[in-house]
Design a protein that fits this description.
about 60 residues; mainly alpha; 2 strands
Length: about 60
């Protein structure tokens, strides 16, 4: 879990836990969603559920 927190910011422990629960990997944070990495979106306080949904859509494409 520490790796997740370091990757998306120390105040993002709940988001890190949620991403981990979804089975996502740290490498998923580098996936670009509309040109912006998932990591950047999370650091910019975009809702974690929105990021998860977007990553699911990209996986299915």
């Amino acid at each position: 879990m520490r790796e997740w927190a370091e990757a998306i910011g120390p105040r993002s422990a709940p988001a890190a836990a949620r991403l981990s629960e979804e089975g996502l990997m740290l490498s998923d944070l580098e996936v670009r969603i509309d040109g912006i990495s998932a990591r950047r979106r999370l650091r910019n306080d975009e809702p974690v559920e929105q990021i998860i949904a977007a990553l699911r859509i990209l996986r299915e494409a």
